[in-house]
Amino acid sequence: MSRKWSDLTRGQRRVVVAAGIVQTALAAWAWTDLARRPADRVNGPKAVWAAVIAVNFAGPIAYRRWGRRPTSTGTTTP
User: Which residues cross the membrane (predicted)?
Assistant: First the structure.
């Protein structure tokens, strides 16, 4: 059974909007990072990760966890 926006309470609407904002922010961060990161610092093809990022919350989280290789900053910690 699908519900219409008008069927939701004010609190439920706020949750939906907040979740949408978080999802959009995660995806924007991931796509920006992917675009700026050199291909040799990405695990696998960039085009595949770009598509994976589009998958709800799971895509950007998966990219953060498994898609990125650490960047070498040239500094070492003591």
Answer: 46-63
Contact 54, 47 (CB under 8 A): no
Domain ranges of the chain: 10-67
Residue 19 has pLDDT above 90, yes or no: yes
Reported pTM = 0.79
Classify residue 64 by burial, with Cβ atoms within 10 Å: 0-12, 13-18, 19+.
middle
Report the pLDDT value the prediction gives residue 77, as an integer from 0 to 100. 47
74 confidence band (pLDDT: 50, 70, 90) = low
